[in-house]
């Protein structure tokens, strides 16, 4: 609220919209969305710059309220336009595919230094290898998860598909249904890699209908993505709602997918 006030925005109340590893709030009466995250685990400046540049080339992205990143103690705050949802149902596949195509087209016009997708895989691998950070992960599951990450990382890295700037996690939770059409949010996970890595985070039917997809690579990316998010659920500091239950379920799904 104090960050909004610095911009002359009226923010007398804050309503929590989502609370996970980052906190999302709706500020009223100015009707602005605030994202609050631990500074040590955030790339807020990169996220803001990516969103700003993508908006400039006409990509389907949520608008910034301010390009400034506010530092509040150990946390960072960014301010965005708030969009009233126009539907509670899933975005139709054709609209999802079209929005992602336009996003990728815009990203090919943006040149920014971002991590490679393998850097994100490395983070998951380090987490699995660190028993202090993942104390509840059983020994057999640790060996299986480490092997899956290593094997699929190699398989995806050997692909000769072109690489480009990616969203990193364009799943349905990061795509808003608005009056102006679907808009992507949350660009702190941006990386470079083949588009199949992005499509692995989208619903299966989106990847299946996206033009020019390498379906074998997409399958490998889907397994790699599932292994990564499974690893994060076992982090002792993870705040994903009901994360441990998902961690167990996804381990089971991974075993079936790699059998």
TrEMBL record:
> Which branch of life, at top level?
Bacteria
Which species is this UniProt entry from?
Plantactinospora siamensis
Q: Which InterPro entries does the UniProt record give?
A: Aminoglycoside_PTrfase, Kinase-like_dom_sf
Give the transmembrane ranges.
none
Q: Where is the Aminoglycoside phosphotransferase domain?
A: 41-203
Name of the protein = Phosphotransferase family protein
